[in-house]
Amino acid sequence: MKKLALALALVAPLAVAQDWMPTSFDHTEVSPGIYYLTGVGGQMPVGATGLLVGDEYVVLIDDSLAPLGPALLAKIDELAGQPADFVINTHAHSDHTGSNQFQAENGAIIVAHDNLRSRMEADPQQNTGPGALPVITFSDEMTFHVNGHEAYVFHIAAAHTDGDAAILFREANIIATGDLLFRGMFPFIDLDSGGGVAGYKVGMQRLIDMANDETKIMPGHGPIASRADLQKDFDMLVDAEARVKALLDKDMNEEAIVVANPLADYHDEYNWGFITTEVMTRMLIRSLTTN
């Protein structure tokens, strides 16, 4: 998984060279003044972002890769008529924090969990200059009272990373999950950045418990989801881990388990470019044998 994390960190310049990078952003208005922004063009599945627009402040949730900063700013200006006042980072990966410095240079205040700032501060590829790091951090939870909304921001420990945050828009009944949800895809659980399968399941269950049948869920990757979609992906993860554990309990080694392909039933729906069925299997093996 260290190689995978490195690949994710290095893929941005490669994507530019091969024209894999999205060139613009599309938007869906999930509720009045709340938008879900996704990359358009290219083959690279960059992290999605959320946007709260109103008369008081403009709040952006994540800000994509560094080269996409100007395109994201153009979309924000189209929808809000001004740059973002705040950016809430949901975790430290560069497809969600990459344009922090650019957005800060255009007036945004960056907000995130304590652990996210610590990880970015220690990484020269992310600690690129003034504005790249969050200037407001929190340990457990905080609430934005803006534009008639309560945006409740809360930490989920040891899940996708050790610095994850999700956001509940209470009145609008919308949850922005960050990478606690890869809708319809095997999730990337960054074991080298404090993440863990156990914590990821706890985090997903917390989101499920927070939602109802009317809740709209904005994932870190994939289409807008429902509580039923979130439950389906949670059930897949629970079952996938159990399938791998059953083979480990038979004293099968990693290569034998990969050959046995215990996640074959999920391949057609959940396999994708970064987290293939084999990568997911190996990640579960590592999690079960080291934690």
How would you characterize the overall build of this protein?
This protein has 10 helices and 12 strands. The protein has 291 residues and is an alpha/beta fold. The protein has a single domain (2-227), classed as 4-Layer Sandwich (Metallo-beta-lactamase, Chain A). Helix 5 links the parallel strand 6 and strand 7 (136-138). The longest helix is centred in the last third of the chain and has 22 residues, at 227-248. The radius of gyration is 18 Å and the shape is globular. The two termini are 15 Å apart. Residues 1-18 have low confidence and may be disordered.
The CATH superfamily name is: Ribonuclease Z/Hydroxyacylglutathione hydrolase-like
Shape: globular
CATH class: Alpha Beta
Uncertain stretches of 5 or more adjacent residues: 1-18
Number of domains: 1
The separation of the N and C termini measures 15 Å
Number of helices: 10
User: In which range does the helix fraction lie?
Assistant: 25-40%
How would you summarize this macromolecular structure in one to three sentences?
The protein has a single domain, classed as 4-Layer Sandwich (Metallo-beta-lactamase, Chain A), CATH 3.60.15.10.
What is the strand and helix layout of this fold?
Blueprint: H1 2-17, E1 24-31, E2 34-40, E3 49-52, E4 59-61, H2 69-80, E5 86-88, H3 94-97, H4 100-105, E6 109-113, H5 114-121, E7 136-138, E8 141-146, E9 149-156, E10 164-169, E11 174-182, H6 197-210, E12 216-221, H7 227-248, H8 254-260, H9 267-270, H10 277-290
Parallel strand pairs: 4-5, 5-6, 6-7, 11-12
Antiparallel strand pairs: 1-2, 2-3, 3-4, 8-9, 9-10, 10-11
Helix pairs in contact: 6-7, 7-10
